[in-house]
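FAQ: What does a multi-protein file look like?

Like this. Sequence, then tokens, then the next protein.
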Amino acid sequence: MGIATRTGMGRDRRRFGSKTGQCSVTNFLVIWHCIGCRSRGIPKLDGAKARFPFTEVRVSRRCAGVDEKWLKSRGEEREKMDFQNRVGHKFGTAGPATDQEIAADRRERLRKLALETIDLSKDPYFMRNHLGSYECKLCLTLHTNEGSYLAHTQGKKHQINLARRAAREKQDATIQPQPQTSSGPRKTVKIGRPGYRVTKERDPETQQKALLFEVEYPEALERVKPRHRFMSAYEQKVEPPESKFQYLLTACEPYETIAFKVPNMEIDKAENKFFTSWDPQRKVFTMQIFFKDREEKELPALPQRPGTTNLAFHGGGGFTR
């Protein structure tokens, strides 16, 4: 294939004519030696490249010694060549990407991939300041975007600070005493409700009303004593609350807890009035309570609004408003 430039000249045609034994060109000045002339042993034009540095790639069919079949095959190969999808030479685009552009594209691609897999809202060290940039609270570094922060988290400085903080927290945890945590109430399999007997009594001297409770726990565990407590009607959620009653609860494993509904009166807890006992042989829990008589108590008086106000001045004297 010949490489030539279009010229309209008579002097150059005479200079590079066929009489000199070189390429014979009518309308083109041959700059590079064509294959046809090279195969025939025709010498190359000297100084042509220096004289014509900017040339147009053309095929000179009138160059002496060029084979027509060879030109036809080269034209077919040129038609088969894909000029649109060559790297960096697509129509309407710039040239090949530089190293900086490739690195920037790679960082952007890695940033998008990391944002899909990592949730920055759960990162305790990620913070966005009032300027719109991002900060690492662990390393005290400033970042312009999320990708920069993600790249920082994979860096050596951030990893070292994470290891230091983990070691410090581990050391502090070993020094501080461990808090005593209760395991909660012991879970046992309940076998049902116990048997009970309630007796109404009255003191012959004071005429105080009393109740005697006898609860049987034949299957009570060893070294286990029944417990009891009083509960307000508003603490339970089994029945609608009634202000006239309160509940007496007794419990002993492995039986279910039972409650007795008693009048909401003040309990007399004197030594000879209130007592409980547990018989480990018969396994019977006994409890006696006395109620105090209702007494009418005067409610405290409401605060009175003052009718007169005495105002005094610094100079002495005063007046009543």
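And here is the next protein:
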Amino acid sequence: PLQALHVVGQCVAKGTRIRRRRKNKKGEWEEVPVEDIRPDDEILSLNDQTGKWEWNKVEKTMDMGIQAVFRLETESGKWIETTGNHPYLVKIQNSLQKTALADGSPDTSGLTRFANTNEPDLRIDINIPQNSDNVNNQKGVDPTGIEPVRPEFLDPVPEPGGPTQGLLSQNTDLFSIKWVKVSQLKLGQYIATQDGWEKIVNIDNAGRKQTYDLQISNTHNFLANNIVAHNTYINSGLNIGAAFTGGAATISNGLAVSGNVGIGTTTANSTLSVAGSAHIGGIRQGIAAPANGLFVDGNVGIGATTSNNLLDVWGNARITGTLGVDSTGTLGAGLIGYLGVTAPTSGLAVSGNVGIGTTSPLQALHVVGQCVAKGTRIRRRRKNKKGEWEEVPYINLKQKEVNG
């Protein structure tokens, strides 16, 4: 991945021409670069129920970032630059055994021909799942700079509502029609265009280019550079796989997920399921990652809304294993202290032996060190009484006097 969220969708390259109906201009249209298409624009697409051309609205526009693209060219010179997983409508010669489908591509072998015939209506499966490689609410493309209609774009076009001319009319026992990814197309196969089926004569790697995609209402396909192309179709929740590109879009209000989220697992049984280690914070340097734990840069608060220490626990805490506090044992470092003005009235409750100066206490309180018994008298100089002194029990001495 090249960004925090990297998505690979079904995309076409920047500059791909999309046929758009001109607003308030009945029957007039223009060809506009894909990057200048906006939501609610009406573009030319193929009706999956009737086989006729019609105008359908753009539901979403998606900036899909820079991706590897291929240049697909037909015998008449039509061409399109597109990502390898973008499906196109293909006529495939049948054999005695049904041809296997491209991964995730539905069978549309029931297709006969486009409308205006006595054959059954054309039906194109509009649900082409590609691991739902899509994301809602992506940043729309820049609506400015729409290219004006150029004379070379004003050639005759199939009228919306009319049939596509010159497309398949042979016996369907001899062929089937399928959506096939560019990466699985072969030279010599026929793809659907505005002028009918055209043979593929060239497929070349076109390098890495800025890409865009559209989601179209009803038909889920669009005419791009006069070639019928399927759109990215959101048919389920977000599934982020090996490579998902969200482009340069920034989600201002975060990512909202309804349901469980799994990281490193395909079965999330909790609101957040993480299989493996987790690292929260800056880049880990100089230390090994936890084999199967949680690594946090910064403070952690449990039961707290603010945390000013590496670990703040507001409330009761229970430790069933060993608790080690400052294993270096720096003298006077304040290994255990109370925050606030007074210690808790209940004191420190310990179930088991307590050792001071020893790691293996034999009694409830086992002290190893330099000690004196209770009642031992210590000679102390009397304040403001030059030369006078007194003897007091050790226990009555103040800390400053003991240290001095």
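Q: Is there any per-entry metadata?
A: Some entries carry free-text notes. For the entry above: The radius of gyration is 37 Å.
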